[in-house]
């Protein structure tokens, strides 16, 4: 029975891969978004406060609002635990917990497509996630508040920053249990361009396309709004960044 189930899943994956072949061919050389994690290990975390202080210790506890971090409690080498609200933190690094990292790593490997990051922070190269303080309105409905949000496009974020939505729904995927082999694209992110940050949903992508990319005519010639697809958001942001910087390669 297990062999039959495995064979069925393998056949589904094969059919899915062939159906996506043409689309993936045009997308294979672009960096993807990092997985959005929910659980973090007790490995050393690094918290940089707005006053310049750097705190290192064990991540003892996190408080959240709609999945986003509002407060972190850090235990130092002496065993003393101190709470730091998001309002006092500029940025921080957390290490994903083992199970969460394992279940989401499959998607990351599938989607990376051999892209080699060029500007990844040395700390992130060790497997850490990077969080940045942002004043944001959750789902574009709530009053703005400062939160610590995970940046998911650290290697191509100079023009548009993309932050994870821990409550995002996903597109259809193929796999068994928590392990996803194909599909499973998040349907929403928080995106920041200039000083503006907002919640972007898949079904509102077309309405916001020009808001993100409409100020660059060269980009629009190559990637017109009429052809836009949500699953290539990472490619569009990467290409927009490259074209706006004047890179002709």
Structure description:
It is a single chain. Strand 3 and strand 4 form a beta hairpin. The strands form 3 sheets. A 7-stranded antiparallel β-sheet has the order 4-3-2-1-5-6-7, with no helix packed on it. A 3-stranded antiparallel β-sheet has the order 8-11-12, covered by helices on one side. Strands 9-10 form a two-stranded antiparallel sheet. The protein is built from 6 helices and 12 strands. About 17% of the residues have low confidence. The protein has one domain. It is an alpha+beta fold. 26% of the residues lie in helices and 31% in strands.
List keywords for this structure.
249 residues; alpha+beta; seven-stranded antiparallel beta sheet; three-stranded antiparallel beta sheet; 6 helices; 12 strands
């Amino acid at each position: 029975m297990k062999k039959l189930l495995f064979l069925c899943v393998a056949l589904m994956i094969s059919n899915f891969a062939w159906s996506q072949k043409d689309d993936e061919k045009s997308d294979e050389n672009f960096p993807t978004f990092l997985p959005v994690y929910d659980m973090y290990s007790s490995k050393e975390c690094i918290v940089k406060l707005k006053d310049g202080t750097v705190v290192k210790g064990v991540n003892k506890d996190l408080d959240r609002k709609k999945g986003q971090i509002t407060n972190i409690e850090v235990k130092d080498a002496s065993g003393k635990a101190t709470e730091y609200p998001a309002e006092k933190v500029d940025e921080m690094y957390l290490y994903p917990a083992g199970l969460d990292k394992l279940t989401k790593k499959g998607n990351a490997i599938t989607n990376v497509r051999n892209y080699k990051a060029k500007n990844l922070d040395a700390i992130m190269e060790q497997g850490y996630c990077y969080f940045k303080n942002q004043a944001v309105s959750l789902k574009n409905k709530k009053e703005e508040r400062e939160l610590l949000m995970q940046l998911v496009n650290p290697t191509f974020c100079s023009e548009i920053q993309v932050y994870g939505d821990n409550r995002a729904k996903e597109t259809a995927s193929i796999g068994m249990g928590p392990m996803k082999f194909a599909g499973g694209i998040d349907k929403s992110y928080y995106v920041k361009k200039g000083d503006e940050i907002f919640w972007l949903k898949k079904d509102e992508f077309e309405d916001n396309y020009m808001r993100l990319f409409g100020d660059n005519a060269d980009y629009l010639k190559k990637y017109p709004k009429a052809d836009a697809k949500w699953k290539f958001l990472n490619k569009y942001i990467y290409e927009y960044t490259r074209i706006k910087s004047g890179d002709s390669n």
